[in-house]
Amino acid sequence: MARRTLRHIFFTPLIRENPVTLQILGICSALAVTTSLDTALTMSVALTTVLVLSAAIISLIRRHIPVSIRLIVQILIVASLVIVIDQVLQAYFFDISQRLSVFVSLITTNCLVLGRAESFARHNPVLPSVVDAAGNGLGYSLILVVIGTLRELFGKGTLMGVPVLRTVEDGGWFTPLSLMLLAPSAFFLLGLLVWAIRATLSEQAEPLAHTPPDRREAAE
Amino acid sequence: MADLNPISLWKRFLALPNDNRGKTIAVAILVAALCSLFVTGATVVLRPIQQANRAAETQLRLEALIDAIPGMEAMLEADDGATLSTVVVDLETGMAARDVTPDTLDAALQDPANYANLDDNQDIAGIDTRPRYVQIYILRRDDRVETAIFPMIGSGYNGPIEAMVALTGDMNTIAGMTVTRQSETPGLGARIEEPGWQAGFQGTQVRDPAGTMKFAVARGPAVSPYEVDGITGASRTGRGVTQMVRFWLGPDGYGPVIDAIRRREF
């Protein structure tokens, strides 16, 4: 396999191999924190930071991680970074950290972070690992920001808390869709997004798991 | 001849094969030690800022609680002798503390001697120890206590719950309640933070006319004047709140203070 260029490593995970829409990784937090744009952005920054730092550290010591305890070592590094990020948020962004509640600490168990550590950072030098982590983090962030924007705009008529569409309550014309603030709407939006991406990039579509039988079985 | 130069020792250690048992253990210990140093360092450096944030938050919640009690704001604004004062009470005597003021409270609470250990029968709220001095808020009008606000702490499903409960002058009717800190499950137990649920506390009675503690978070909708609605899927959190309120308004909590207020000693 030819060595992939850094450019390629960085841009592929943004859309073509986006961790959320192609691999459906990390959607727990993608659903939970996207009710408004500011929480989605904070979560994106937190996850990207953890991803990049953990990739750098793991890649740095990759030749000396014993295979038998590699997952524990990786999780330990990820968990420490997550705790520190959480503490920083609590200190400097208290209000947002209250609204993100447990989801920052749950970055530890986000498949995305461990997935990149295990499949990429463990086998590659520091620079490509960091670039790959940044690409994946930004790919995740892109989806979060898109969903967060749609949900906040249509659910509350605001963006980053600033009114954009004047709601009926304030004398405007827009009736907020309260469904957008509930978890199912994130599923719908993510599903539509995956559909749109796979319709455009048809090589992402998965083969059918079963071929339907030619004719229906006789009903009993 | 043993080579004791640390640099060459380190190099030899790194050169060991990765499946070497000694190296595996050493790597595990090293990574664990470095990570714990990192986490501890961050926690210690950031703690003062976090505490300041939390104190500001508690103050905000207190103000919100006062605003939420019907008629409270009007009472404070209608300049007729109504004043809100902060009092440090001594839970052992049930009186205002003699030598501890709100300013010296933090220092007093650093001293382990100012905590009472609770035995299993007393400790219904699951908090192990109870401070001797607590700061409460009293709203007075014409020398009568109109409302008193009591901070409390209990244990929920995931961790401690801190709250403030306001009682009206009869010391038996809840005027309002707010949660200042909790770590319950988002969407289930964490709904104790919702003003809609907290509004259910207003008008709830704590004891029946015979003086028996009856307050409870119901399992489902409240069916008696002593209950508030339960939250579906959060029965352990609800139980935690019940026990917390029962403990703190009971004889081992603010009981002596409440009795003193009833005797008009405040």
Helices and strands in order, then pairings?
The complex is a heterodimer of chains A (220) and B (266).
Chain A (H helix, E strand, L loop, with lengths): L5 H6 L15 H6 L4 H24 L9 H23 L1 H7 L10 H11 L4 H31 L1 E2 L2 E2 L19 H18 L20
Antiparallel strand pairs in A: 1-2
Helix pairs in contact in A: 3-4, 3-5, 3-6, 3-7, 4-5, 4-6, 6-7, 7-8
Chain B lengths: L5 H10 L5 H48 L3 H6 L5 E8 L4 E2 L8 H5 L5 E3 L11 E3 L1 E9 L2 E12 L4 E9 L5 E8 L13 H4 L17 E2 L9 E2 L6 H14 L6 H8 L4
Parallel strand pairs in B: 9-10
Antiparallel strand pairs in B: 1-2, 1-5, 3-4, 5-6, 6-7, 7-8
Structure explained in plain terms:
The complex is a heterodimer of chains A (220) and B (266). Chain A is mainly alpha-helical. Helices cover 57% and strands 2% of the residues of chain A. Chain A is built from eight helices and two strands; from the N terminus they run αααααααββα. Chain A has helices at 6-11, 27-32, 37-60, 70-92, 94-100, 111-121, 126-156, 183-200; strands at residues 158-159, 162-163. Chain A has a two-stranded antiparallel sheet with strand order 1-2. Chain B is of the alpha+beta class and 266 residues long. Chain B has two domains: 6-46, no CATH class; 69-262, no CATH class. Chain B is built from seven helices and ten strands. In chain B, a hairpin with a 2-residue loop joins strand 5 (133-141) and strand 6. Chain B is elongated and about 85 Å long. Classes of the chains: A mainly alpha (220), B alpha+beta (266). The interface between A and B is medium-sized, with 26 and 25 residues. Chain B: The modification FMN phosphoryl serine is found at residue 235. Chain B: It is a single-pass membrane protein.
